[in-house]
Amino acid sequence: MVGITDTILRDGHQSLIATRMRTSDMLPAAERLDAIGYRSLEVWGGATFDVCLRYLREDPWDRLIRLKRAIRRTPLQMLLRGQNLVGYRHYPDDVVRAFVAEAAQNGIEIFRIFDALNDPRNMETAIRAVNAVGARAQGTICYTESPVHTLESFVALGRRLAELGATELCVKDMGGFMPPQRGSELVRALVREVGLPVVVHTHSASGMSTMTCLAVVEAGATAIDTALSPFAGGASQPPTETLVGVLRGTPYDPKLDLAALADLAAYFSRVLDRYRPLLNVRSLQTDPGILTHQVPGGMISNLLSQLQEQDALDRLGEVLAEVPRVRADLGYPPLVTPTSQIVGVQAVVNVLTGGRYRQITQEVRDYVRGLYGTPPGPIDPALRATVTAGAPPIEGRPADHLAPELERAFEEVRAFVPGAGTREALSYALFPAVYRAYRAAVDQGLTDDVLGAAALAVVAALRAPPPAELRSASGGDGGGPSAWAHEGRIHRQSQRRWVDANRRRAER
User: Fold this and answer.
1) DSSP 3-state assignment of 179?
2) Measured in Å, how far apart are the chain's first and last C-alpha atoms?
3) Around Cβ 354, how many Cβ atoms within 10 Å?
4) CA atoms of 430 and 444, how far apart (whole Å)
5) Which class for 333: exposed (0-12), middle (13-18), buried (19 or more C-beta within 10 A)?
6) Residue 83: closest CA among 379, 480, 401
């Protein structure tokens, strides 16, 4: 029997409606979800933490507590970006350890831990912290394709994650382009060579996900990720009901009640109706082009947004051709938050400034210097020389260069939230400006319903073309309602300054 992890309360709505589902829409279905018999329910992490504070004016900790109160039998699961936790930068070890402990105390039992570069050093502290609190550490391999990503390299990473203390593995196909045969080969090799349970997460973007899920189940996967049908397909996961039907009567039958699933699907279909203005039709479309360019649908939406801001939509083809070149120059990083943003922004800058690396973003400079971790492959020597001429590369694990922050976070948050505890301090440590704005809104009585309705109205007015924030940065998996729409605004502002400066120079 294969286990099913349903993502409807996290990645399903992150992928299709920019993570905007409110807790009030989750709770009425919570007990019924708990009764299904899922292996786990993914309910937290990824972009949910940021979006709760930034847009919905909800406390993400309160969401977790209330869900755990209603879901008592099924393990709750979250997506953790390694040393980035649920943010877009590396946090020091004291913050990582405190966050994991608090999340476990409030209901998370399975932590899916990944790193955008597949650098195990960026997952080590989180894995050890999860084990320290007695939860389950799911070490994650971000699947991608390049000359340096081989079956052997993925298996080696799986072994290393096991050595660090991972109790199971996840193959994370965040782009949705892992073919059934390669998925099968990878799962078989991991089961054989590493010996841990293997879970497979994919997206439906290329149209292959259902076939891939069947192949990995037959190859020995312990569990697969799906989403109930109203929030499935396209940029999201394959439908739960479909795969339950495909596997019914086989040795892998998850033995879930299709009638009960249909009842839940009917409920979430009504929920989706309330968020229709946020549903970008592109997120539901199948895009086989991803099999060749490997640019996830959400990333393409972001590129379109950037080009539109510069009145350069006609140059999308040039940018799509430049993305793989930049990725190769940077050592073939998987395209997932934050590397999808790093590669994408630099590709746009290269095209719009009329020369490759005429302007180098700060994020690329930090990447080349090793502040994000060790790239999968070698960085272009000329690019490395240009960057390191101004600042030398760092040595060792990136987080070793970070000073502790938790004590300071306590001091600063208590200045405007008297008596703040660990949850408040962590929220502030992760997103200082966002948390301040959230507290100010709460103090003014601006509830999630008020701002949620306002957000729906604004987005509805901007439907043509859809703004970047309507899509996740990596097709829904790694990363969050577009980090371009969040921290990525900085990227856009910098990009505009560079382009405008070059245009002025050209005019002169």
Assistant:
1) coil
2) 69
3) 11
4) 23
5) buried
6) 401
Amino acid (one-letter) located at 93 = D
How far apart CA 347 and CA 489 sit, in angstroms, is 16
Low-confidence ranges of the chain (pLDDT < 70): 297-298, 301, 447-508
Identity of residue 235: A
CA angle 48, 273, 209 (to 5 degrees): 60
Q: What is the DSSP letter of 307?
A: H
Query: Which residue, 232, 259, 304, is CA-closest to 464?
Result: 304
**pLDDT tens-digit profile of 10-69?**
999 999 988 999 999 999 999 999 999 999 999 999 999 999 999 999 999 999 999 999
Alpha-carbon gap, residue 193 to 91, rounded angstroms: 32
Closest listed residue to residue 85, CA positions, set 469, 426, 410? 426
- Residue 333 and residue 174: Cα distance in Å, rounded? 13
The whole-angstrom separation of Cα 350 and Cα 353 is: 6
DSSP SS3 for 181:
helix
| Cβ(4)–Cβ(256) below 8 Å | yes
Contact 368, 393 (CB under 8 A): yes
Listing DSSP states for 397-419 in one string gives -GGGGPPP-HHHHHHHHTTTSTT
d(CA 103, CA 75): 13
User: Does the pTM exceed 0.85?
Assistant: yes
DSSP per-residue codes, 223-285: EEEEB-GGG-STTSPPBHHHHHHHHTTSTT-----HHHHHHHHHHHHHHHHHTGGG--GGGGS
Pairwise CA distance, residues 427 & 50, whole Å: 9
Match 């009145």 to its residue by tokens: 311
Tokens of 68: 């755990």
CA distance 55 to 13: 14
Q: What's at 369, amino acid-wise?
A: R
Host H or E run for residue 499: helix 489-507
Can you tell me the distance from the alpha carbon of 47 to that of 302, in angstroms, rounded to the nearest whole number?
16
Contact 153, 140 (CB under 8 A): no
Beta bridge partners of 472: 481
